[in-house]
Amino acid sequence: MNYRSTRNSSLKVTSAHAITKGLSDEGGLYVPESIPQLSKEDILALCDKSYADRAFEVFSRLLTDFTPDEIRHCVDSAYNDRNFDSNNIAELAKLIPGTYVLELWHGPTCAFKDMALQILPYLLTTSAKKTVDGKHIAILVATSGDTGKAALAGFADVKGTRIIVFYPKNGVSPIQEKQMVTQKGANTFVVGIHGNFDDAQTGVKKIFSDKELAKEMDEKGFQFSSANSINIGRLVPQICYYVYAYAQLCKDGKIAEGEKINVVVPTGNFGNILAAFYAKNMGLPIDKLICASNDNKVLYDFFRTGTYDRNREFVLTTSPSMDILISSNLERLIYRIAGNDADKNRELMSALTGNGKYEITEEMKAQLADFYGNFASEAETAAEIRRLYEKCGYVIDTHTAVASAVYGKYVAETGDHKTTVIASTASPFKFTRSVMDAIDTKYDVMGDFELVDELSKIAKVKVPGAIEEIRTAPILHDTQCDVDKMKDTVKSFLGI
């Protein structure tokens, strides 16, 4: 199977090229030329398989230029009990009958990004052998908190790679920042920028599209790649955990064969819910894709009006990984509902760059019927954390709380009580202050790691090793820069 650019339909590349490159030369995102299918029989056959085996089946259909042995090496190297604190890799926790939380945070950084970023180094190094003739891969990452640490952990000391992570200096949680700035690895670099996540993301995209810099890189034996969700090597692993969740519900007898479920996803850059959309199009019996936003509700407005408008106040919230006004992966959906018309997509993306907004056609709007969008305010998010703790004894993080609160609005609005999976994207231990304050304001006087211990006590769960190890870890990265100095910072790190 080949992959096409969303901004140049004549450009077709292998999956290995798409993974290595990350972004096409004209700034487009790579999408599969067609969507492979999982039949009812295929899905049923997955019920008795491990996470790695279920992932193998998905990868085999989407990365057709990889050999079975290469795919097996990648999935087995990533999805094992050395990298995850659960033998199942992910877990399904029942909140109430018919509602399940898909815990995607049992990896080394306690966030859902681990599900993709533990395997991406293996996908990338395998791809590089096929495509770049021995060049070193320079991985650039813009992060709103979770991707950065997960990518650093995945690529630390991986031969033939260097990784540079940019994050908003005042736009991540204290735990998220500590996880990044204490990262070991001679090939790792972390930079706090004086700006927000959108600034970081835009800066990284500019560096990717800088042809003069690309020439300098080539002369020095480097090639850029990306570990952000724009890389198709990030998106394919995300499809896997929706397939896993459905197969697990079938295996556990929670749903009947072929029964449709709803999926709820806290969404910032749109990649996580896009993966569920691709899973649905592969044949997974998903009905509604419920897109949950926080106060940065640009996606909610888009689904309600058909207009994407980033011209608004950027709000810093307690769910920082969703504090995004440019949802990069939405471009892949726009391209699809535009009839895979690269010219139309390019026109809309140009409007977004130039005017900060675009409007889709009525015909395109009609193709969004599978989606439902809503948002949860800061007060609603805190109330949902407290409600679930008091009702179920289950503690969720702020992002999962946004999803759960939106799901409540969906049920109230539609009366739809289908079996539902809520994607839980981070451990509550990553956002202890916000979580504990939501449960009871008395905790506000405690220090960050006092809160960690108190959360462990009330939730009756052990402090994750990933959190425990940063308690006393030394700061190894203290670089900061202005947005307009990001390119110079990259060149300095790479010695060019």
Could you explain the architecture of this structure?
With 496 residues, the chain is α/β, with parallel strands linked by helices. The protein has a domain at 91-112 and 233-463: Rossmann fold (3-Layer(aba) Sandwich), CATH 3.40.50. 45% of the residues lie in helices and 17% in strands. The chain contains 22 helices and 16 strands. It has a 6-stranded mixed beta sheet, sandwiched between helices. A 5-stranded parallel beta sheet has the order 9-6-7-8-16, sandwiched between helices. Strands 2-1-3 form a 3-stranded antiparallel beta sheet. Helix 7 links the parallel strand 6 (136-142) and strand 7. Helix 11 (232-251) packs across helix 12 (271-282) and helix 17 (378-392) packs across helix 19 (432-439). The longest helix has 20 residues, at 232-251. The protein is globular, with a radius of gyration of 21 Å. The mean pLDDT is 95.
Describe the secondary structure blueprint for this structure.
Blueprint: E1 2-5, E2 8-14, H1 15-21, E3 30-32, H2 40-45, H3 51-62, H4 68-78, E4 91-96, E5 99-103, H5 114-117, H6 120-131, E6 136-142, H7 146-155, E7 161-168, H8 174-181, E8 188-194, H9 197-208, H10 211-219, E9 222-226, H11 232-251, E10 261-266, H12 271-282, E11 286-293, H13 298-305, E12 307-309, H14 330-337, H15 342-355, E13 357-359, H16 362-365, E14 371-375, H17 378-392, H18 398-414, E15 420-424, H19 432-439, H20 448-459, H21 465-468, E16 479-482, H22 486-494
Helix pairs in contact: 1-6, 3-4, 3-11, 4-6, 11-12, 17-18, 17-19
